[in-house]
Amino acid sequence: MNVSGLYELPLGPGKRFLNRGGMLAKNLLNGWQFGGVFQYSSGTPLRIGANGSPLRTGNIANLVAGQSLTVDYNNYYKGLPVFNTGAFSSPGRFAVGDAPRRIEGLRTSFNANENINLAKHFYFSERVGAELRMEFFNILNRMQICDPETNVDNATLGESTAAPSARRTALEQDKPSSKLVSEPCWSEPLQYRKSRKPGLVEPRHFFLVFSPLINIELRVNFEPLLQPFNFN
């Protein structure tokens, strides 16, 4: 689910509040905008694979009768598998597993991400203006657990040992606030995971991975000045 919105403060000449003044008041008070994109997803079904390829299309695990999946991503912080690995067994290299290709009850972790932006418009004349935009990605410093190991023949089946990096900020003029930010997974020591609060990036982790993107640019619109000229 994606929710987005944009709100401009009703301040300055031509607006509801503090609406007196000339060009100076217009540049100080007008053009302040606040927006955000809020993204939430339940994760995608996982495939539990196995070694071997008897049909030349890879292989899948066997389901163990009487075993429940018991998915719990809080086990990430304990260094334990995030689902019941006893629910799967290896079919061997020359037999085809009987598990579904994608298991509906076994999904990647829930993802929540909030991005906000603050923009200021400037008015140099009736025809020329500019915009300065500052964006914050993952403003609540949420952490998403990366996908667990899904090969039944691997000793680390069900374990997730990596997590994406934390909050970022960008001061820019051309990147839309609705842009999806894809963060690479990075290895996280077990002692950090055990001391972390579920769902959040701790301050010590934040300072390790925080790298602000400072790109100060203005979007200046000169197109109205060119309209009186015919270049044909």
Question: How would you characterize this protein structure?
Answer:
With 232 residues, the chain is mostly beta strands. It has one domain (2-226). Helix content is 10%, strand content 28%. The chain contains 4 helices and 13 strands. Strands 1, 2, 7, 8, 10, 12 and 13 form a 7-stranded mixed sheet that branches. Strands 3-6 form a two-stranded antiparallel sheet. 17% of the residues are buried. Mean pLDDT is 77; it is low at 172-182 and 202-217.
How far is the first residue's CA from the last residue's CA?
48 Å
Structural class comes to mainly beta
Q: Report the principal-axis shape.
A: elongated
Compute the average pLDDT: 77
Proportion in β-strands: 25-35%
As a percent range, the share of helical residues equals 10-25%
The main sheet comes to: 7 strands, mixed
Order of helix and strand elements from N to C terminus: EHEEEEEEEEEEHHEEH
Low-confidence stretches: 172-182, 202-217
Q: Count structural domains.
A: 1
Radius of gyration: 26 Å
How many DSSP E strands?
13
How many helices? The count is 4
Question: What is the gist of this entry?
Answer:
This protein is 10% helix and 28% strand. The protein is mostly beta strands and 232 residues long.
Feature tags:
elongated; seven-stranded mixed sheet; two-stranded antiparallel sheet; mainly beta; 232 residues; single chain; 13 strands
